[in-house]
Amino acid sequence: MATSPCSSSGVSSSSSSGLGADAGLEIRTRSVEQTLVPLVSQITTLINHKDKPKRSDKTLQAIQRVGQAVNLAVGRFVTVGEAIANENHELKEEMSVACIEARRAGETIAQLTDVANLDHPESDSHITIFTDKTGVVKAARLLLSSVTKVLVLADRIVIKQIITSRNKVLATMDQLEKVSSFQEFVQIFSQFGNEMVEFAHLTGDRQNDLKDEKKKARMAASRAVLEKCTMMLLTASKTCLRHPDCESARINKDGVFHRMRLALEQVIEIVTDSRPNGENEMAPISIYSGIKEFKNKVEGLRENLYFLSKENLSTMLEVILEHTEDFTDSAYTSHEHREHILELSKQAKMELEQLVSVWMQAQNQKTKDLMEDLEVAILKTCQCMNDLKREVHSAATSLAADLLKYHTDHMVLKALKITGVEGNLEAVAEYTCKLSEQKEQLVEMCRLLRHVSGTEPLEITCIHAEDTFQVTGPQIISAAETLALHPSSKIAKENLEVFCEAWESQLSDMSLLLREINDVFEGRRGEKRVYLSLPRPGKHNANLKALKPVKLDTEEQAKIAKLGLELHLLTSDVDSETEKWEDQENEIVQHGQGMSSMAYSMYLFTRGEGLLKTTQDLFHQAEIFATEGTKLASALHALSDQVHDDKPLLLLEAEKLISMCKQLQTTAKASAQGKSATFTKVDACILKTRNVMTLLCQLLPLCCKLLRKNKAGNGCLKPAPPWKEDRIRTGTNARTPERRVDTFGIKSLENHVTNMTFLESK
Length: 762
What we know:
Four Helix Bundle (Hemerythrin (Met), subunit A); Alpha-catenin/vinculin-like_sf; mainly alpha; Alpha_catenin; cadherin binding; actin filament binding
């Protein structure tokens, strides 16, 4: 399927200050988003300056410096954009128009901020930021829109690269499928390997740059398929060439080619954000996400009794209970779990009936007693759903643990290898039946785990695992049948080994996946999960009616949106740094991950989302964050005793961290009376958290470098996986057209914009 890279730009992006970018553009990658953040900050500073009647020379000079800095940065930015346009003729016209608009807007802002001589009489007629604020807003909108267009167009070139690379791989695969001699196969496979390395490099960079965690997980799954299938394609093709008349060998090879083509297609769907024939992606709903949405609706009745209908709520529960039938109908669910799930399903219906009854009465007559009865009904309904979630989680994870333990010895695979080499067709047939049974068990396990995975990325990983078992099982069987028909064939034996290794590898991955699912459920770790050190909802129900939660209103959320976005980006940077450590149990990594999770929950608070519902929750979270930072400082002191290089620097940074954490703790504990004081305290807590996270981003790579030196070659960084291209190789291709975008691409544009200095509002 030929896909146009143009589909990468979609809906919209806007800032809280009302400086919306072009309504036809959507920012889908972190590199584009991060490039825009400092520019938005500068322009927002200019527009939100305080119109004091008396302006000091210092203020006027500062405003002029910012205007000039914006104009100069835009000029450099446009130069890079024009270079990209000259190298990509199909985008030249669009890019040139956007560059001209950006340059014009930058010059307008420089003119309007030329206010250093404003207080002199001869400049009375001069139009400035003070006399024409509308003009500044208009120029700012044009600048953000045009800069965003340039960035998205540059991003389109990256997408085009991936599509071109995919097309090369497909063309070479077509050649590989048709070869009839070993010599020809070896020659073409060598070319195929180089093309796959290039594709892996491009898609790996894209995966890391994606903002959408769900797309990231889908990309990771597709790339994992391609990585494993590359070796399968080699041995399956060689086996087919060695035994051209063997039907099972042909089936085995065809299966590999088919799976690789599907994975390549999915990668293109992700990077272009499109589906074949324009169809929409229908994601299966899990019990976990269904219960989460249902509880949110039920708890929403506290704020608004009229925002949904009772039929809507009943339908949601029906869907959840239908999904529980996956457990109750499964032959692998224990009798005890089945009974408990059925009992809780019945109780959930009863609790909802009671809730609806009180809810309908409260709509007609909002008395104190009825509202208290409604609160009790809400709590009982939510508690029942929590119990149901816990029961299905227990059923799925206990089944998975038992199956993985039972199949650890890989007895069926070992038997297939032995009987295949013996040429015992009857025994091979017997063990293939056992493998098919094992496959059905593991597929069912993946389906049940998906319901309780807890996050969308983990759901996608479960779906990928299910597909892997579904496909690899029959491939092992065809490879074993080929070996049984040709027991002396070394290549047929090697081929069976490769497919068995893929099966064993997936079983090993399932053990890790099970641990992650349990971690998310228990609130220990997980992808972008809030740090669950706060009192759990419902834990202190006795005080529920006595406490009146304080929330930020829409205007206050808008004011701290920029700080929240910066905090969000910093959590992503910290996560990227911690992922580079080979020893994930290292104390420094553990504290870093904990702080990142807590900072992310604070970012969600700025959006009115997440577990931090009130300002008091936020202040409590800030205190715990500061405590975790102090523990990290202790770990840094311990590390300084083990290293020699940069020890003074490490101790200095540790002391800086302690000081910042103490300041944050003092701020979080300080009393604040009234709406204005509370908001000031919220703003200060998030600002200080951001500063600590900035320091953490610098500390993690420093510590990792010191540990690596200390281990004298053992290293604490993960080795580059074979699926990713060795970055040194790219130097040899630096002059080729496909590599030129690395020189004139998003990174170059990003560097020019981020060089601008910040002007703090006083």
